[in-house]
Amino acid sequence: MCLLHRKPTPQSFNYISYFIYTCRMRADGKLNTGSLQRIAAAATEHEKRGYAGLWSSESAHDPFLPLVAAAQSTRRLELGTAIAVAFARSPMTLAYTAWDLQRYTEGRFTLGLGSQVKPHIERRFSMPWSRPAARMHELVAAIRAIWDSWQSGSRLSFEGEFYRHTLMTPFFSPGPLPTPAPKIVIAAVGEAMCRVAGEVCDGILLHGFTTERYIREVTLPTVRQGREKAGRSMNGFEVIGLPLTATGTTEESLATAVRAVRNQIAFYASTPAYRGVLELHGWGALGDELHALSRGDDPGKWTKMGDAIDDEVLNTFAVVGPPDRIAAVLTERFGDLVTRFQFYAPYEHDIDQWTSVLAGLK
């Protein structure tokens, strides 16, 4: 298992994540859940270590509540959701929560949204599902219309295909912010959602199941189409990478990380929605094989699926090696593509092992 070094070409389960802003070499941490005291202490510690921000996610817990404790215990850290499930909420509820967090953080909040998938929206959240890219486009536009009403005092009049907001009296308006409105970024994989990100958002959260080539040939050209349609450039637009990263300070820990990353790649590759990434590399048959295995009754299917990920596939989807070599490969592979990285490390590891990685990026 060696690092795959290559120059960019024109063609070409405990989770701890860190964001790296390559343009300014800023590192962000992921805010784990716990007691209010633990959340506040973690935020304080990240600020002391020099991290630029903390992000919370939505899985088994609300993504917004931990940020209140983090905001109270910090003064500099940027805070955001990566991600909150957009279609589990209305534009109005998202607008209120984000507006309040922007006020509480004194301008340090970013609203990160994701669509989730149809079964979760309909069966877990009991909310409507239809045409996710079009709905996300309208949801973001509705949020911005609500915010504009609060900031300027103008009449709220938003009528779309999915959402309608035409009532806002002074009693229910939180009033203007002393800071700019929160930034909005969305998670996107398919081309339709990538276009939405470019057209109406301030950034895109890339999926972990992607490659340098796919970002270069599919994702960013599609985002640029959205920017051009909206009459905007890429200046100031955040492209947030999520590269799968297998690293460890010993041979044993590195092997454990590699095994976990192989399994994660296999899991994503078995999902038909992500087949386009495989097909770009000529690995469509691998997707078929993994999809068939995932639907079987074999209790050992997840191990067999991971075994199907050979070193070529592993090194295409992931950055692999000891911590002191990770920074160079990340910069070489993604330095001209993304504005920041979020290391995707789906295995147990020590927060301190990223010290040499961060030093290398700086």
Blueprint (SSEs and pairs):
Layout: E1 18-21, E2 26-30, H1 36-49, E3 53-56, H2 65-72, E4 78-81, E5 84-85, H3 91-104, E6 109-114, H4 118-124, H5 132-152, E7 158-159, E8 164-165, E9 183-188, H6 191-200, E10 203-206, H7 212-229, E11 238-241, E12 244-246, H8 251-269, H9 275-280, H10 284-294, H11 301-307, H12 311-317, E13 318-320, H13 323-334, E14 340-343, H14 355-361
Parallel strand pairs: 2-3, 3-4, 4-6, 5-6, 6-9, 9-10, 10-11, 11-14, 12-13
Antiparallel strand pairs: 1-2, 1-14, 7-8
Report on this structure.
This protein has 362 residues and is α/β, with parallel strands linked by helices. The protein contains 14 helices and 14 strands. The protein has one domain (18-252, 317-361): Luciferase-like domain (TIM Barrel). It has a 9-stranded mixed beta barrel, surrounded by 4 helices. The chain has a two-stranded antiparallel ribbon with strand order 7-8. The model is unreliable at 1-25 (pLDDT under 50). β1 (18-21) and β2 (26-30) form a beta hairpin. The longest helix is centred in the middle third of the chain and has 21 residues, at 132-152. α1 (36-49) packs across α2 (65-72), α3 (91-104) packs across α5 (132-152) and α5 packs parallel to α6. The two termini are 26 Å apart. The chain has helices spanning 36-49, 65-72, 91-104, 118-124, 132-152, 191-200, 212-229, 251-269, 275-280, 284-294, 301-307, 311-317, 323-334, 355-361, and strands at residues 18-21, 26-30, 53-56, 78-81, 84-85, 109-114, 158-159, 164-165, 183-188, 203-206, 238-241, 244-246, 318-320, 340-343. 42% of the residues are buried.
